[in-house]
Amino acid sequence: MSDAVTSPAPAPAEAGAVETPFRRFCRDYAESRIATGALVVLVAIILVALLAPWISPTDPYDLASVSILDGKLKPGSQSMDGTTYWLGTDGAGRDLVSAIIYGLRISLGVGVMSGVVALCIGTAVGLAAAYFGGRTDTFIMRVVDIQLSFPAILIALILLAILGKGVDKIIIALVIAQWAYYARTVRASALVERNKEYIEAAQCLALGHNRIVFRHLFPNCLPPLIVVGTIQTAHAISLEATLSFLGVGLPISEPSLGLLISNGFDFMLSGLYWISFFPGVALLVTIVSINLVGDQLRDVLNPRLKK
Amino acid sequence: MTDTAPTLQVENLETHFFTKDGVAKAVDGVSFTVGRGEIMGLVGESGSGKSVTGFSVLGLVDPPGKVVGGKVLFQGQDLLSIKEEELRHLRGNRIAMIFQDPMMTLNPVLRVDTQMIETVQAHDASVSDDEARARSRDALGQVGIPSPEERLKAYPHQFSGGMRQRVAIAIALLNKPDLIIADEPTTALDVTIQGQILYEAQKLCRDTGTALIWITHDLAVIAGLADKISVMYAGRIVEQGGLGDVLDHPAHPYTCGLLGSVPGHNTRGKRLYQIPGMTPSLLKLPKGCAFKERCPHADAACETAPEITHPVEGRALRCAHPQVDLAGVAS
Amino acid sequence: MTVFIIRRLIQSIAVVLVMSFIVFVGVNIVGDPVEMMVSDEADQAEREKVIKSMGLDKPWYIQYARFIGGAVQGDLGKSFVYGESALKIIVQRVPATLELALAALLMAVVLGIPLGVYAGLRPDSVGSKTIMAGSILGFSLPTFWVGLMFIMIFAVMLGWLPSTGRGDTVALMGIDVSFLTADGLSHLFLPAVNLALFKISMVIRLARAGTREVVHQDYIKFARAKGLSNRRVVLVHLMKNIMIPVVTVLGLEFGGLIAFSVVTETVFAWPGMGKLIIDSIQSLDRPVIVAYLMIIVLIFVIINLLVDVLYSMLDPRVRLSEVKS
């Protein structure tokens, strides 16, 4: 990584010897209290999702512990055997707190997984376009432009209409719907970097394509990529929830937040608001906190906005 | 409106900018008078507060800036105490302003006729479209724009820089104002066009009795144009007087420095004088005289800010070390 | 100019062909159309007959050519569920979707632009901070959940507005519309707000960014120096400058509205083509799915083409890029 440090790093040079770029980054980030709060919330959400089997009050999908007699209980009610359902129960008598915790696990899992795969593909394509330029670039960017002229939800919908339901299928659909955003971002920043002298110097040293692209070009495209990655992940989570709600995303066996909300939809008209409401709040808090973190990252990582 | 009152009399004007890093006194106790048909040059480096002075007169200082003190008497009426609506009726009507960059002063998405007709009708709604158009056409002709009738229908980007400035001047002239404030109107133009515009400005003031404040950093422009001159430094007037008096007998070291750095016939082959250092930040002005750190004559006396003095009638000076004996010169 | 339009036209046709190929491959190669057409009890001979009648024994390129040939003539198969031409069923649903999308677009403009301009003119005021917080929320809130909440609050709890359907419609030039009847309007309101929410947030941001950039331009100060009223400075001098990017983006986003109407129509049971496609996916009504996909691709390609052409016509006159740089 020493190459990345000697080349113009994202953090400006005046960071000085005492203050490492990372520390400076942390200090800049902490300047916004809202963003810091959002980060705390986000970390908490991720921990909850990761630790779901250990911290969830009940296992909502263990048929032995779920009783239909506990169905549609209001928030704060007690079950037959005395446990309190803080957020109520759904139509099948599942504890909503537990269902939300497990739902978060699936929603985050799908969002992050599709985000990572799309990021890898998009980065590779974007770097290739920027580094090789010429016809490769023109062709790739034309494809990217055309794809971006269709909304992500439409592309995902088309794919799922063809592929059918399933975790693997929705991840494929989300990846295809999103790779182009990453490709465009990476290409834009890679083009800027590519024309800088240190790349020319590396080429003069006759370093291999791979070395130049991955040791020199790529590290300098990271800041915008991190920002787009954060915001696109939030988008992917929202998209998955929407598609699952529409009944074209995840199957019933993988109850993400979107499916939980969808299940509550039928009860809502009879006034049982909580079955849809609380999973929606969990979804909203997740998306808002990711977006806030992303916004602050953009401000901190963008050297143009520095004073 | 009284006949005896000068067109514009500014007294102790103070405009401050309340920024996050502190209060910047962009205009700090500025006074001057411009009479009918008179041309005053307001000279200073960028950041000396000369443009802000112009905007303060019109009440166009944007936040975080604010006029905090003084008087702006236009034909005897204090503009700082009248209602916004009354002031708006003076702007562009009795007092017009011309800006520095002709590329930026005209709205790119509106046709020239729209921008001219609205100026007429903003102050007199009873003027018909046709009449306003006729006046606009005449104004364009007056500033030397060929085939004004067709040009009215053009968009600003269809004009060259010099032509755009002429349009801006024509807009300023539309309502036959009593005072024009011109903020470096020729800086962005070619020298030949600059000459034509200066000539026309002078002619206008002579013919119509319009008073003119010409804001510039270029002493050479002022020398051929103005009747009197005010030199600003760091928000204050440091020297003021008749054109010839000040140019021939500059008393403030800053004025001397400015004059010394104008290239001329007798400076050929010699090294041009250069005022050392840079304009100080208004947020971090030195104590005492603001110019002392760049002044070759600074000493202990400059540690206290010099008050404005009037060594002879019609001259003002803010310096502890006048470079000429003004009283002696005058006698 | 003509060359530009022709090039764009060729590109658009290429996109339609590529998408039709993807849809064709997806539906006919990845999926198994025979499964869809014959009942489970059918014997081998019956299957053979179906395969032959559908031309599935031919090589793929001939199948594709037949598919395209049919599509050009407006024949995209018969709906399994409705037993009618798939294309016809969809075309019947188009007005409802367009009405919803246009209503949402109108709201985005009518609400978004004034709020955004206000936030841009007074960036530090409480009102403008509230607007911006609202717009962040508008970006983050999943459309379908907001729709559910709308139904819960306004239909179930308060009982002010109906939650499903189009309400009474009247024919306007042969097309049924809701917005001309009081009942239809009350049905239209919630779905339109729901669909518009995201776009309102976007327009607010665009208008605010534009305002903050334009308001510091010399020509705004010059307009004020001319003695124009604030009203005229804002409504004419400022608005005209920020409208161009806003209108361009809105034009491009109109397609997004049609795409997202899938969500809103499902939530509010609005009988448009978005609800139709979801119903068809659930009931595996493959001809309708294919027809929908082809039509939506066509709509998008046309929108993109129109915006491109319009923008290229606007651009040389305005030359905003020149001024901005």
Overview of the structural elements:
The complex is a heterotrimer of chains A (307), B (331) and C (325). Chain A starts with a helix and ends in a 6-residue tail after the last helix. Chain A has helices at residues 2-6, 21-30, 33-50, 52-55, 96-132, 134-148, 152-163, 167-194, 197-204, 209-246, 257-268, 274-301; strands spanning 77-78, 84-85. Chain A is elongated and about 75 Å long. A two-stranded antiparallel sheet of chain A has the order 1-2. Chain A contains twelve helices and two strands; from the N terminus they run ααααββαααααααα. In chain B, 31% of the residues lie in helices and 22% in strands. Chain B has helices at residues 50-58, 84-90, 102-105, 112-121, 129-142, 148-151, 161-173, 191-208, 219-223, 243-248, 253-260, 326-330; strands spanning 8-19, 22-34, 39-43, 65-74, 77-78, 95-98, 179-183, 211-216, 228-233, 236-242, 316-317. The mean pLDDT of chain B is 82. Chain C folds into two domains: 2-72, no CATH class; 93-282, MetI-like fold, CATH 1.10.3720. In chain C, 41% of the residues are buried. Chain C is globular. The chains are: A mainly alpha (307), B alpha/beta (331), C mainly alpha (325). Chains A and C meet through helix 7, helix 10, helix 11 and helix 12 of A and helix 1, helix 6, helix 7, helix 10 and helix 11 of C.
